[in-house]
Amino acid sequence: MKKIFTAVEVIREKKMNIGTFYLASEANIWWSIVKDPLQGCKLTCAKLFEELRAKLYPMTVQQHKEKKFMGLEHER
Question: Hey, which of 48, 60, 61, 62 has its CA 20 to 30 A from 70?
Fold first, then answer.
């Protein structure tokens, strides 16, 4: 999402609306539950991504994926 926002030059004020519009499945369900409490905290797009990553992609999963990636061999 960050890459797309940069490529199409989305202004900061629009990032939250656009970013949450594209949430699907579990992420969309999570957002529908937490949006009111989180928006009351002056939620930024960066904070949204951080919260979403923590909820749907916990550190243990990230570490497992990183370890698996580091074990890949390069093809020649």
Answer: 48
Q: Is residue 45 part of a domain?
A: yes
Helix, strand, coil percentages for the chain (3-state, nearest 5):
70, 0, 30
The answer to whether the beta carbons of residues 50 and 65 sit under 8 Å apart is no
Which structural domain range is residue 13 located in? 2-70
The pLDDT value given to residue 41: 64
Domain-embedded: residue 76: no
Total domains, the chain: 1
φ, ψ at 15 (rounded to 5°): -60, -40
pLDDT digits (tens, 9 = 90+) for 13-58: 888 888 889 889 988 998 888 887 776 667 777 888 888 888 878 8
